[in-house]
Design goal:
Layout lengths: L11 E6 L5 H12 L21 H4 L12 H12 L7 E4 L4 E5 L13 E8 L2 H15 L4 H20 L8 E4 L4 H27 L1
Parallel strand pairs: 1-4, 4-5
Antiparallel strand pairs: 2-3
Helix pairs in contact: 1-6, 4-5
Length: 209
């Protein structure tokens, strides 16, 4: 009697790092490198809490760089749905108004996002590099002013990075410096992910034999 076919064991990869460290760029590049039919991306940035109930003038004074600024319950609910094989519709969030504006296109589950977090990648970049990238992104994509970005960085972002982000570096399985070109980082991260998948597939095969 032949053994049942061995299915690819799913792998959920978390990419962490400070604002401007290159998380989104690496995630997009990995999706291209590994194939969109094998991967799905869920951006934590879309899960900021809806501030529609807060008067617009008061919204700019809120701290958006603490864990409480995110709807973590919804984020975890969507992760669990993906792990169970169900698609999710992430909220669409406006960084200009700090309000939700509907839903983004559905994210369909892929084999790589249906398990517990198996691989943790931390992206490390100097503060100057992160600030430069944040400035370019927030001014060009989020309708901010240079002065506003710098004030927010000094008021909340720098301290939040030291308090909440930097300590997670020691919990990472892989730490990558992202001050230089993206291509070598993508190559390393993709190789590590594929190696994890291969080793877990081998373990699954041995258990099924």
């Amino acid at each position: 009697m032949s053994a049942p076919p061995v299915l690819d064991l799913p792998l959920l990869v978390g990419i962490a790092g400070g604002s401007g460290s290159g998380k989104s760029s690496l995630a997009v590049a990995l999706e291209t490198a590994l194939g969109s039919d094998r991967t799905a991306r869920l951006a934590h940035d879309t899960y900021y809490r809806d501030r529609a109930a807060v008067p617009p003038p008061a919204r700019t004074g809120l701290n958006y760089d603490v864990p409480e600024a995110f709807d973590q319950a919804l984020f975890l609910e969507h992760l669990q749905a993906l792990r169970a094989g169900r698609p999710v519709a992430p909220p669409a969030y406006s960084f200009a108004t700090h309000c939700r504006t509907g839903e983004l296109p559905a994210v369909a589950p892929r084999p790589a996002v249906r398990a517990a977090l198996d691989l943790r990648i931390f992206l490390d970049a100097p503060e100057r590099v992160r600030l430069d990238r944040r400035l370019k992104r927030d001014v060009s994509e989020r309708g901010r002013t240079t002065e506003g970005v710098l004030l927010q960085f000094a008021a909340t972002v720098r301290e939040a990075h030291r308090t909440y982000v930097e300590p997670t570096r020691t919990m990472a399985d892989l730490v990558l410096g992202t001050a230089g070109r993206l291509e070598p980082i993508v190559e390393i991260a993709a190789a590590v992910i594929l190696d994890h998948l291969a080793r877990r597939r081998g373990e699954r095969a041995r258990m099924a034999s």
